[in-house]
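Format notes (please read before filing issues)

Several people have asked whether sequences and structure tokens are stored in separate files. They are not. Every record keeps both together, in the order shown below: the sequence lines, then the token lines. Line labels are part of the format and must not be stripped during preprocessing.
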Amino acid sequence: MIFSLDVRRARKGDCLILHFGTKEEPGLILIDGGPKAVYAPHLKPRLLKIREARKLGKNDPLPVDVLMVSHVDDDHIQGILDFTKEEIANVGVHKPRLLNVLSLWHNSFDEIIGSEPKELTANVTRTFKTEASTGEVNLSDDKVGDVEDIFLENAEDSEEKGAEVVGSTLKVLASISQGFRLRKDAERLGYERNLEFDKALDKALIVAMEGQETPTIAGSLKATIVGPMRDEILALHKKHQEWLKELEKQGKTPEEALAAYVDKSVPNLSSIVVLLQLGGKKMLLTGDARGDKILEGLQLVGPLGQGDKSTIKIDLLKVPHHGSSNNLDDDFFERIIARHYVFSGDGEHGNPERESMEMLLKARGTEDYEIHLTYDLKDIDDEREKDWNKERAKEMARKKKKGKGEVREKWSAEDHSLVAFFDANPLLKKKLRIVDEKKPHVIDLAEKLTDSWPALAD
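Then the structure lines:
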């Protein structure tokens, strides 16, 4: 039996391919596509290689059992949109498709909040520049930073609301157009969507519910939905309606309205979290979900026992939100115990963070496990240092303007870099596995993938 995760370089985002089944009856799941400049150089060549290895006909598309877009953040969805755009163009000129997608798993943001958010969309497009040709939102860091500043000036609990939470939330809101486009592209390409899941919300949403039947993919792969949790989506429906009423009553500016809507749960509630099981092996894919919500979801659907000390052992954990410590509590790695930890990120926005690695070391010590990074430590640290200095400059400007506020210390390689951290912990450093730019990085949980298809070693 094959159960292997094919980890692709995806800049600041996620891009994963799951191989499962047997050589005679192979299964394939594509999970996220990263941001721009990921599909063409990193994802498409691998898909072509898989099709070639399986010895399909020149015009035969590669079967994909599930195409899963964990949520609408740009660094997960854009590469998939690049793929669907290319597929539609090929269909238009009667070229063969690359993939035959049997099912699309995706919760579009308008369905998550319970209505088509025309008011919200209008505010986003007024706040952010849009591309005239496509209507896509410009997610420039400068513009996001402007809204962050407005939020921090008006929020009473600004010390508790980090700029990363604000920025990620705004980008989810601004990605509404991307969610619309994916849904429309899927319709044009004839993809079935979320058919196996709950329809009690008048939408075919993928949600976690107590007692929910576990879908089986291709007759062999169990897929337990851990998040988002249905009750929280129902609560978010109500919150969205209240937000719309407040917007109308107070006549807020678009920037103020967006800032008022920020909540830590908003971006994370859209993340699909799934526990995949095959032949006694377990793999937990987490998108950008919050660690506490992942634990709560695991308890809700059963794999994790009740009580704040209960634990679950799995074979592979895709660490949430690219290893951001904002999404993790101290007990996360103590309660979810894995053999393989995958951190996907190139250092942009500071991820993966050193604090997350410190949490993992504290929880697991030098036990038997491996850490998989999608880029070299030095390359990650270069981007992390840039982000650190940019955020420090913003903090200094706010303090100068307002006369208060915390300013982080200057970047110190010894105190802040991943290189120094792993050098100081040589036994942990031995556990590192780095995704090579030119070679595939496959984590085999059962039989080796290359035993069935030797060509996939290249």
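For reference, the curators noted about this record: The longest helix spans residues 377-402. Confidence is low (pLDDT under 50) at residues 127-142, 154-166, 261-265.
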